[in-house]
């Protein structure tokens, strides 16, 4: 694929999925970029996340205990996906995995299993539970995310932190990792949760106002994509404000990669080298702060 065509298509897709562009307008513009309707459809398939893509881990991995359904929070309706090592020795650090603006899908469940295999008691909440749960249609999921009561979602996440701390099988420390919409959620949860949160890793997530940095207690690892100007416009000042406020923060930008470079179900945006480095950094960060 021509590099200029690819870059233009990725930038357009980012606008479509994050700025509310009408699908008809999006497809008209993508068709012009690709040079025809058939080429546009092929290009879209390569850029968009593929819900049928093979998982890195198996859904029935015998090394894990997996549950799906209500997370059992008192007075809060929140479903989710739970994955934990089957034969763990001792108490485990807990980790919340926050989904993208597509909701809790098979890819995020796969990510939760990956973290569980690294020794974390992992929960991936479905923050679209109040809207009836994550729909199969990605456009519908993004529309539902746009209507979500953000404060209620933050309150549900804080309740889940408290619930995880109280489990007999965990060590009382809870981290959070999120991607895209979930990366933004990590930043905002760090503000809202204060010292209840033990550590957070934000992948290419838009950031709060820099004035909120003083409210953060948890150490943060902020992982950014070099080509992601939309997110970096707020995330870079956010990282600088956290440093200026004396907070524990690491900010890493992976050059020459796109937004969502970690999502291995998107053929054109996934970058294995950057994703592997970011994964290793995330595991090391959580092992440091959740031990």
TrEMBL record:
Signal peptide: none
Cited Pfam families: DLH (PF01738)
Cross-referenced InterPro entries: AB_hydrolase_fold, Dienelactn_hydro, Dienelactone_hydrolase-like, TAT_signal
SUPFAM superfamilies: alpha/beta-Hydrolases
Gene3D superfamilies given in the database record: alpha/beta hydrolase
Domain Dienelactone hydrolase: 78-289
A GO MF term: hydrolase activity
Name the UniProt record assigns to this protein: Carboxymethylenebutenolidase
Organism name: Allosphingosinicella indica
């Amino acid at each position: 694929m021509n590099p200029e065509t690819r870059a233009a298509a990725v930038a357009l897709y980012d606008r479509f999925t994050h700025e509310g562009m009408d699908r008809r307008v999006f497809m008209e513009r993508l068709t012009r970029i690709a040079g025809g309707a058939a080429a546009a459809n092929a290009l879209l398939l390569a850029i968009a996340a593929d819900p049928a893509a093979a998982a890195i881990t198996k859904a029935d991995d015998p090394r894990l205990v997996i549950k799906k359904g209500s997370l059992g929070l008192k007075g809060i309706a929140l479903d989710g996906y739970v994955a934990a090592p089957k034969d763990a020795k001792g108490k485990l650090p807990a980790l919340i995995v926050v989904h993208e603006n597509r909701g809790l899908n098979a890819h995020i469940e796969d990510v939760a299993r990956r973290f569980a295999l690294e020794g974390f008691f992992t929960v991936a909440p479905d923050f679209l539970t109040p809207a009836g749960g994550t729909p199969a249609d990605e456009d519908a999921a993004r529309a539902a995310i746009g209507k979500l009561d953000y404060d209620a979602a933050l309150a549900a996440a804080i309740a889940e932190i408290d619930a995880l701390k109280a489990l007999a099988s965990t060590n009382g420390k809870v981290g959070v990792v999120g991607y895209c919409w979930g990366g933004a959620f990590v930043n905002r949860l760090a503000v809202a949760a204060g010292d209840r949160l033990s550590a957070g890793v934000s992948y290419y997530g838009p950031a709060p106002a820099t004035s909120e940095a003083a409210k953060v207690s948890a150490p943060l690892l902020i992982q950014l994509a070099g080509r992601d100007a939309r997110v970096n416009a707020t995330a870079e000042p956010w990282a600088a404000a956290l440093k200026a406020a004396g907070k524990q923060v690491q900010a890493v930008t992976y050059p020459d990669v796109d937004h969502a470079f970690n999502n291995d179900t998107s053929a054109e945006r996934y970058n294995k080298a950057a994703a592997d480095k970011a994964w290793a950094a995330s595991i090391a960060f959580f092992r440091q702060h959740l031990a």
